[in-house]
Amino acid sequence: MRMRNKKNLIPRMERCASVQVKDPAALRGRWASLLPGCEEVRAEMGCGKGAFTAGVAKRDPQALIVALEKVPNAMVTAMERVCAEEIPNVRFIDTDAVNVPDIFAPGEVSVIYINFPDPWPRKKEAKHRLTALSFLALYWDMLPVGGRIEYKTDQSWLFDWSLEQFAAVGYELDQVTRDLHANGPVGIMTNYEARFHEQGVPICRCVAVKTKPDHAPLPEPKRRRPAPDGPDRT
Fold first, then answer.
1. Selected catalytic residue, list 102, 118, 174, 179
2. Which CATH number fits domain 124-216: 3.40.190.10, 3.40.50.150, 3.10.150.10, 3.40.50.300?
3. pTM score, whole prediction
4. Cys staple from 111: which of 33, 42, 87, 165, with CB 3.0 to 4.6 Å?
């Protein structure tokens, strides 16, 4: 079911135009120029309502946080949060993660955040998961050697599957846990995460590090068999 458009969505987004980038391809290779004294550029794949985005930006003011979100109804809330709190080091892009090669130059992003992505539970939908091999290869190109992906989910089956995908591409896994907040809250939470923690839902987290220039060869996509010819009706 598609989310119903929020009331006055367009005017609300226009009021926050200072933090939205309408032509991200034009900034490819020079994102750091948007923040005086910028020490690194980070990207968030799906920022939701922006609690995590704002929290990280306030904690690390020397980093430019580029937040991607393909659902404008969620992104407008995040934009309003950042504007209301006058956080200078966040920019938003209304786009899908599949477009990152056109947005970021190779090695331009030091950290990628993937928090509670859509699990796409059906097997035939696996290619849409943000930790599928094809996406992980795109992220690899964005990162320098030593760059990392920080990943969190409440879906234990998805976490186990994702660990296999990270390893298959060539990322080195670190800080792997299946109950991040077992001994109390750790780090900055998303809205979903705070709710899950209150409900006692374990949070899975890992860090995947790019430790070498080239990723492992990816398997060739399976080709569909051509449909058989229909009966000759001549």
1. 118
2. 3.40.50.150
3. 0.91
4. 42
